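Memo to structure team: turn this sequence into C-alpha cells by end of day. - J.P.
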Amino acid sequence: MQKLFSRRDVARLGLGLGAAALAGREAFAQGPAFFRIGTGGTAGTYYPVGGLIANVVSNPPNLIVTAQAANGSVANVNGIASGAIESGFSQADVAYWAYTGTGLFEGKGKVEVLRLIANLYPESIHLVASKAANIKSVADLKGKRVSLDEPGSGTLVDAKIILSGWGLTEKDIEADYLKPNQAAEKMRDGGMDAFFFVGGYPTSAIAELAATSASGIDLVPINGEGAAKIMSEYKFFAADKIPADTYKGVGEVETLAVGAQWVTSSKVPDDVVYEITKALWSDKARQALDAGHAKGKLIRKETALAGAGIPLHPGAERYYKEAGLLK
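Reply from structure team:
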C-alpha cells in the first residue's frame, strides 16, 4: 500500500524553501509518495536507463522515484492499467496498440488511461539479410526464407506492417517465427535469408553474426515511398538511421524506428507528472544521462514527442508548452 504525504506531513519537514517551493511540495502531497518505473530485465537496456532516470527525477522526501525490473513493454502497460505501477517504459508501438485495443491488444480492450511522459530513444527496425541472398529492398523478400520473430511479439506485428508497405504479406514469403538469436543461428547455417529485429543498436546477436558469417550480412533499407506510407498510417514510427560500422562490413542504412517511451496513467496527478517531466529535462539530468549509459546520450528534449501514438499526460503537456515544444 502506498503512503500519501499529507500537507501537515510536508509542513513538518520544515525545509524552509519559501512559498514557491511550499506550493510545489503541496502539489506532490496530492500524489503518491512513491512513483515506480516499470522497466525490463536486469540484462537489458530499460533497467539501467530507468535507474538513471529515477535517480535524477526523485525529489525526496516529497516524491521517491524508483525503477524496478519487469518483463518489458506489455507487462508495464498492464501494470499501469491495473494500478500496480505508476509508470513504465514501453515501445511506442505497444503503447499505441494498448491505447487503441489493436495489434497485440486486439480483443483485450483498450487501455484508455495510458498517457505519454516522453519519448526516450529509438529502437531501430533491423532487417538483417545474408549477403548471399542478394536482398536490396523489402520488395526482394518475396519468395525468401524470412523470420518475423515469435508469435506474441511486437516485432512480428511490426514486420507485417513493413511487408504491407511494399505490398507483401506473410503468404508472399517463406515465413518462420523465431527469436532473433535463433534466426541468426539459422542464417549462419545457411537456412535463413533474412530476419527482423526491433531494438537499440548494436545488438549482440547481429554483431556476432556479422563477425562470424562466412558470406557477411546486409541491413536492408526501409525507406522511400514504402516507409513514407507506413509513417503516414502509423504515427508511432519515425525515420531513423543505423550508422556505418555499427556492424562489421555494413554501411549506414536508413530505416524506421519505434521509440522507447516513458508512459504513465491519466490518474496520476498533473502536478506530479509536470515536476517529473521538468526534472527529466534539467541540466542535472542531462549530465547524468550523457555519462551514465550509451542510450542516455540519445534521450533528447528535441525528440521527446517523436513517434507519439498516445495522448500526452496533461502534466507533461504543460511542461512541453512552457519549453516551446508545443504550441
